[in-house]
Specification:
Strand content: 25-35%
Number of strands: 2
Length: 67
């Protein structure tokens, strides 16, 4: 991992879901300053889609190839 010790925190919460099965949830937190060496920083705007979505066939083909 590119983060030094203490710059990242990973927590796991477990519990019984509405269907009666056990579930687990991960919570990953990284200090904003730890992202600067990766070219990211807290002052950057959020990422947003800037163009049209690919056609439906593209998604379907990608899902078929993933199997």
């Amino acid at each position: 991992m590119p983060f030094p010790p203490g710059e990242i925190q990973v927590d796991l919460a477990c519990g019984i879901g509405p269907d009666g099965h056990w579930r687990g949830w991960f919570d990953v937190r990284v200090r904003a300053e730890a992202l600067r060496p990766l070219g990211l920083h807290p002052d950057q705007p959020s990422s947003r889609a800037t163009g049209a979505s690919p056609p439906r066939w593209w998604h379907a083909d990608a899902e078929r190839r993933a199997r």
